[in-house]
Amino acid sequence: MPKTAMILAAGKGERLLPLTDTLPKALVTVGGMTMLEIVIRRLKYFGFEEVIINVHHLAGQILSYLDEHDNFGLAVHVSHEQDRPLDTGGALKRAYPLIDDNKPLLVHNVDILSDIDLAGLYDAHVRSQALVTLAVKERDSSRVFLFDEAGRLCGWKNRVIGAVRPPALPAGDYRERAFSGIQVVGPHFFEKSFRSSCFPEKEDVFSIVDVYLCLASRHLITGYDPGGGCWLDLGRREGLQQAETLPDLLNLHGSDSFS
């Protein structure tokens, strides 16, 4: 069964203004490649054959770019958030008609550059039979997920202001891990979510993190931390600049761009 991924590419990229006033964040280049091509390159390398891409800001440029490159040899489906960007949860809800809920779906932010083994993440998710597997990393971050000793998601913490969710989370020795912007949702995730009160039925714009924290009390949601490796947020100018100094990471799967 072909593996499917979704690339979250609808954001305006406000941290990259004024560059993204006239260019969608997904088409910002680093090392001679767009963010979108970098993610697609990695997905193809790890055996993904079908991709769903959500778009909003300057969506026409992304559609033209995909057409010019013949969808990079993938089966591509576009989820168009025409009125406004819907955040991560709303993006998945809007794209649901395009998603096969009978198999795992890897979800990848377009502005994340890493050397994580996506096939390893996917396979770990399948073995665990978790509802969701979150790629996480032990790094400096103002916001972290909280996991118990077994690796089960228990909560979320803002390290700056000390806020914890859920508010009634018992005190404990939780492992704090920062989210890497990559995740796998398991088969029947939407079916189970829609049947619960965790997936907002009447809301269009919401974070998927809120859904995960709600579902974690009744379903297995785990963290996948391979340790080491490199991770960069290309949605920040600092990340873009650092990436330019790491040609081996940018060209991890070959230096030739897809035709």
How would you explain this protein's 3D organization?
- The chain is of the alpha/beta class and 259 residues long.
- Helices cover 26% and strands 27% of the residues.
- It has a single domain, classed as Alpha-Beta Complex (Spore Coat Polysaccharide Biosynthesis Protein SpsA, Chain A), CATH 3.90.550.10.
- It is built from 8 helices and 14 strands.
- Strands 1, 4, 5, 6, 8, 9, 10, 11, 12 and 13 form a 10-stranded mixed beta sheet that branches. Strands 2-3 form a two-stranded antiparallel sheet. Strands 7-14 form a two-stranded antiparallel ribbon.
- It is globular.
- Mean pLDDT is 93; it is low at 255-259.
Distance separating the two termini: 26 Å
The percent of residues in helical segments reads 25-40%
In DSSP terms, counting alpha (H) and pi (I) runs of 4 or more, how many helices? Answer: 8
CATH class: Alpha Beta
Per DSSP E runs of 2 or more residues, the count of β-strands stands at 14
Globally, the shape reads globular
Task: Please state the structural category.
Answer: alpha/beta
Short description:
With 259 residues, the protein is of the alpha/beta class. Helices cover 26% and strands 27% of the residues. The chain starts with a strand and ends in a 9-residue tail after the last helix.
